[in-house]
Amino acid sequence: xxxxxxxxxxxxxxxxxxxxxxxxxxxxxxxxxxxxxxxxxxxxxxxxxxxxxxxxxxxxxxxxxxxxxxxxxxxxxxxxxxxxxxxxxxxxxxxxxxxxxxxxxxxxxxxxxxxxxxxxxxxxxxxxxxxxxxxxxxxxxxxxxxxxxxxxxxxxxxxxxxxxxxxxxxxxxxxxxx
Length: 178
Prior knowledge:
Layout: H1 3-34, H2 50-60, H3 79-93, H4 98-109, H5 124-157, H6 162-177
Helix pairs in contact: 2-3, 3-4
């Protein structure tokens, strides 16, 4: 490789590194400038009293959006989540405690609306179900391994007959002579 080619390659690498860093820095700055909070709470939902709004946000972080199922109502844009946020704020504005507001929503939508449902008789399957299926799978896998080991052991104990041994010798002698 000539000296000119080495110099050109070095200049190109330096230019790519600088341009890459500049592009990365510009992208990061743009994203930082336009980043907004991920909450779905609209300005018309926000309560005037900051203490009540803080309570509402804390409660809504623990309530599940029934439509989205893996998001809190605070993070969901679903219309039902909006209705639940408004309902929660109305209950708090009317003087309900946090527990009373949560109980009111649970009474209407059931324990499923809680992101961390309590362990009751009707939610026991939610808590015990995954362990039950793991145990069933382990038992099935163990019986499969036991059956496979038994099948392999039985298959290796059957000896060849005299005619089969003669045929094997015949085939091996033909194969080795070729």
